[in-house]
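Supplementary Note 2. Why include the ligand at all?

Several targets in our set were suspected to adopt different conformations when bound, so apo predictions alone were not considered sufficient. For every target with a known small-molecule partner we therefore ran a joint prediction. The input for guanosine-5'-monophosphate is given below.
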Amino acid sequence: MSSEGPGRAPGQLLVLSAPSGAGKTTLARRFLDRHPDAVFSVSATTRAPRGAERDGVDYHFVTPERFAAWVGEGAFAEWAEVHGRRYGTLRATVEAALARGQVALFDIDVQGGERLKAAFPREATTVFILPPDALELERRLRGRSTEGEEAIQKRLAAAHAEVRRGLASYEYVVVNDELEAALASIELVAACERARLGDGENRSLAAQAARFRRGTADLGAWRDHAGP
Ligand code: ADP
Ligand code: 5GP
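The joint prediction is reproduced in token form.
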């Protein structure tokens, strides 16, 4: 029998990953604005706050010592080192969303997404977001002007490997060219996968979402980053 019971929406872990600067934070914010019942999974990190970021809202900003203690206690569902800093998803955040039957949105890197998918194969949906091309990625990173030149170069260098890995393991791929169109694609994928978790597959949604399945999705300028 389903643990959700009749009428109760199932919890869904919607994982959004992308090379830094592709626009996933923007897309995640828009998604949350349009779906007030969805929650953002606030990760813990050892990096410093940027711009207007707030503790407990964008991240739990913690010391390396606090982070290490949480690792030791098994408090993380997954954690990873990204760009020289540590980031992790707290187990309690995942469990609370699932218990409440909520859609939880994760803005985490590919390693984290893969681990979450392995730990919650049924509930997790992984979506990889691509910028239109590498030049536009650089333009967006610089346009955001939240990092210094060294950090921008680090992120650009990491982007190609991140794209290769995402295209090899994520379930869905969405190109963030026009923001509204990308958002609509993510909404479609989320709705399709949530229907599958609940009352069973919705064939019409599944047929539409199939366009974004890895292996089918149009990768545009990133075609040569997909494996053989
Ligand atoms: P990420 O979270 O992936 O690092 P952000 O959401 O911070 O990326 O976006 C990086 C920059 O690109 C921001 O300045 C954002 O406003 C801009 N941006 C995001 N999506 C688009 C888009 N579809 N078209 C143009 N600019 C975008
Ligand atoms: P930023 O410093 O730009 O906020 O994030 C850097 C990278 O860390 C992004 O790719 C972001 O998705 C990833 N990240 C943020 N939180 C987590 C987390 O909890 N786990 C993992 N694995 N990656 C995270």
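Helices lie at 24-34, 64-73, 91-100, 110-119, 134-144, 149-169, 179-197, 203-209. The longest strand covers residues 76-82. Comparable summaries for the other entries are listed in the accompanying table.
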